[in-house]
Specification:
3-stranded mixed sheet; 114 residues; GMP Synthetase, Chain A, domain 3; 61% helix; 17% strand; alpha+beta
């Protein structure tokens, strides 16, 4: 009111400091896409179902530890089991994972001793 009485137009300053708000429904899909939540859920799901997808004796010695650009990293507890899994079981494990999660999510498996 004082600005009006003095003849000063403050509309530009008032609009500049007005909070811009948007509906959550319009912002949330973009945020989830940027965070790649759907992909992260799939990564977490691999860890949860690993023991059901692979042979229990293998699951005792090998556990998934990460997923990056289509490569699933699996840590194996010793080199003897690493050799066994890589030679005889890696294709079977990869096929089961690709059947469950798709080829685009799990394209390769990298086994490491850890």
């Amino acid at each position: 009111m004082l600005a009006l009485w003095r003849g000063i137009d403050l509309t530009a300053q008032e609009t500049a400091f007005r909070p811009t708000s948007r509906a959550v429904g319009k912002v949330l899909p973009r945020v989830l896409k940027d965070l790649r939540i759907d992909r992260r859920q799939s990564e977490a799901e691999i860890g949860r179902v690993w023991n059901h997808l692979v042979d229990p004796t293998i699951a005792k010695h090998a556990q998934p530890t990460g997923l990056h650009k289509g490569t699933l990293f699996v840590t194996v507890d010793n080199s003897a089991w690493l050799s066994e899994i890589v030679r005889y079981r890696s294709k079977e494990i990869l096929q089961r994972l690709q059947h469950s999660f798709g080829r685009d999510l799990v394209a390769r498996i990298s086994f490491r001793v850890g």
